[in-house]
Design brief:
With 293 residues, the protein is an alpha+beta fold. The chain has nine helices and ten strands. The N and C termini lie far apart (42 Å).
Length: 293
């Protein structure tokens, strides 16, 4: 692929992500064939960004840096971390999906279940699509979440954790910071999914307009809000944070059973704490703390 400079390469990658989001693959698979997600946001970070090493120190030795998963995928290549770029994207839930889930108090809405099931299937295909496009253009690439080596582990400090985190890659790539419920608050809000690909190429990193891990969360920055606490039907969110095991148990049992029995869907998800909160669809402001979205 011929590109004029690193900036045109980053624009081409962003266009590739957004073009695939316009494809029929981005679908809730309902009778209206609605899209699962609105248009993505795309960010970039260097494989040598020190935050990846810091995350590894915090989460555990099993957590991959970009260089580690790239080298695991391409063992015959000798490269350095600064030759790699992490391409990260945010897939916002649609207005209709958020509106439906906003009304719920115990279960997810049908659209939310569909977005988690069929939307994540689309996200898997998007990862493969981006990696394939880059490979065709002469850039080796890997989608860590799609790697057969990806797995869930137990972190001494954080409980359940994976060897690659899409949300943390988005955080490093300038796309958002974390909230009280552990959701990533992005410029298009917390009701979203995210994905990433690591490639052997160089593009300018997306500026991070924050230094604090919780910079966009009103609970941490202002001592206000905490509205996600009341949205959780099982008390998995408190002022102390997010109880991942309690959350997972509720989703694995109650939510999956509801999706199957009521909608005939083998689906996983909840989304209550990501909706009807000030950070649902934007970075919240103090002025807007009492508004739902």
């Amino acid at each position: 692929m011929a590109t004029k400079d690193r900036f045109s390469l980053s624009a081409w990658i962003e266009e590739s992500v957004r073009d695939f989001a316009k494809s029929p693959e981005n679908s809730l698979r309902n009778k209206e064939n609605e899209p699962a997600f609105d248009m993505p946001l795309v960010g970039f970070s260097s494989g040598a960004d020190p935050l990846y090493g810091k995350l590894k120190e915090m989460i555990g030795s099993f957590f991959w840096t970009p260089l580690e998963i790239f080298s695991l995928t391409f063992p015959d290549l000798w490269i350095t971390a600064d030759q790699l770029t992490v391409i990260s994207w945010v897939l916002p839930m649609t207005r209709a999906t958020k509106a439906d889930t906003r009304k719920e108090k115990v279960y997810a809405s049908e659209r939310w279940y569909r977005a988690r099931r069929f939307g994540e299937e689309f996200n898997v295909k998007l990862r493969n699509h981006v990696a394939a496009k880059l490979t065709e253009a002469g850039y080796q690439a890997v989608a860590p979440q799609n790697s057969p080596a990806w797995s869930i582990k137990m972190s001494d400090g954080y409980g359940m954790a994976s060897c690659w985190s899409e949300r943390h890659a988005a955080f490093v790539s300038g796309l958002g910071t974390f909230g009280l419920c552990d959701g990533l608050i992005t410029p298009v809000g917390k009701a979203m999914r995210c994905g990433s690909v690591i490639a052997r190429l160089s593009v300018p990193p997306t500026p991070r307009p924050y230094d604090d891990y919780h910079a966009y969360c009103l609970f941490f920055t202002q001592g206000q809000c905490g509205k996600c606490i009341g949205r959780c039907p099982v008390g998995a969110i408190t002022e102390a944070g997010h109880d991942k095991l309690k959350c997972k148990e509720y989703i694995d049992t109650v939510q999956t059973a509801h999706a199957r029995e009521v909608y005939g869907l083998e689906a996983y998800g909840c989304g209550l704490c990501q909706t009807k909160v000030p950070c649902e669809s934007r970075i919240p402001s103090v002025k807007a703390k009492d508004e739902p979205a």
